[in-house]
């Protein structure tokens, strides 16, 4: 029988419609393959075809915007927001508007066109995460910005316009509504119980184990109790950290191992699906607090958002998270190289 579940953080309800689909093989989807055809501006030798780099790791000797890098960050050639100018907030009668000021950057995760993030070594993924950290720390110095969102679109179905493995960072002058919902839900819970709701979720899931997918010394991955999408995963630090960018180096090394493990499991169970992930952290200026807990949300693209979801705000998830967690937890990933 279908079931209604309430997200304990945002208060959002979802429908777990178990009659629709259940096993990974029940989903019809397009497998992501790396064709390597045509010109790619992110490959070695094409550095001049992107905007001038902001950050690069791994280049020994060699000048800027040349080959030899392992991770490279450049401005998006077609940015959603512009870095120049003032916000100029204004009212127009009952309506509010401001200039589209922000930063839009691309993190090129590897020079190898054929590699996906799941295929990279733990150390290479750690370098990608450190690039995230370094760019957020730098952008926080710009007083116009309130939030930095890091996200990855993998595969055409997930919105990726280029197949070369990359992720993106957009710094915004406002805190996005989706993040505000989480923050307000977490703040309300903390006011009532003087505990972080994410920490409580981690404790409860660690005891029950039914929705735990994997863990290491510092991180745990769970299928959320009220998932919006089948095989959705939340990757969270076990200890309370409110901001992603303010952690010690060992944290990023452990995060790299946990992230790779999740992506490899997802590829094994769902046959290399398109996916999105996004990193939710505390807003700029509120980095240290007791109520919010940074985390990464990973969502394979197995279903489509249609009229019912847009019209009601309800998501219909055809796979119970307990089943998703079991399939992912039991995936055979022992032979995957580190």
What would you say this structure looks like, in words?
With 338 residues, the protein is an alpha+beta fold. The protein has one domain: HIT family, subunit A. 25% of the residues lie in helices and 21% in strands. The chain has 6 helices and 15 strands. The strands form 3 sheets. A 10-stranded antiparallel β-sheet has the order 3-4-7-9-8-13-14-12-11-10, sandwiched between helices. Strands 1-2-15 form a 3-stranded mixed β-sheet. Strands 5-6 form a two-stranded antiparallel ribbon. Strand 5 and strand 6 form a beta hairpin. Helix 1 crosses helix 4. The longest helix is centred in the last third of the chain and has 22 residues, at 249-270. The chain starts with a strand and ends in a 9-residue tail after the last helix. The relative contact order is 0.17. The mean pLDDT is 92.
The strand count comes to: 15
Report Rg. Answer: 20 Å
Largest sheet: 10 strands, antiparallel
The proportion of residues in beta strands is 15-25%
Looking at this structure, what is the CATH superfamily?
HIT-like
- Helical content stands at 10-25%
Counting H and I runs of at least 4 residues, what is the number of helices? 6
What is shown here, in short?
This protein is α+β, with helices and mostly antiparallel strands. Helix content is 25%, strand content 21%. The longest helix has 22 residues.
Keywords:
single chain, 338 residues, alpha+beta, HIT family, subunit A, ten-stranded antiparallel β-sheet, 6 helices, 25% helix, 21% strand
